Sequence to fold (118 residues):
Amino acid sequence: MKILRSVLAVISGYAIFAAGAFAFFRISGQAPHQPAPVSIMIASIAVGVLCALLGGYAAARLAGRRPLAHGIAVAVILELGALASLVSTLGHGAIWTQVSALVLMSPAAALGGWLRSR
Fold:
C-alpha cells in the first residue's frame, strides 16, 4: 500500500506541474515550442518553476514518508519529459521551454520535496 501511495503522490505532483504549464500556454495563446517574446518566456518560466515547486512539495506531503525522495521523483519525471521533448524538437522549433525545465523547473520540484522535509 505504501508503494501505491508513493506512485499516486508522484503522479499527482507531476500533474500539478503539467496542469500549470498547460494552463499557462492555453491562456497566453503561446505555443510552447515556438519563439516567444521575452515577457512570455519569463512569465512561463516563473509559472513553471512555481508549479514544479508546488508539485514536488505536494508529492512529498501526499506520500507521507521520505519527502525529499518523492520531490526528487517528480523532478526525475520532469527531466525525462523535458529531455524527450528536447530531442524531438531539436531542429523543429524553439527549445527554451525544455532547457528551462531542465535547468530551473526540475530542481524546483526537488526543492519542494526538500522544503516539505524541513
Q: What stands out?
A: Residues 33 and 92 are 9 Å apart (CA to CA). The chain is about 85% helix and 0% strand. Residues 2-28 form the longest helix (27 residues).
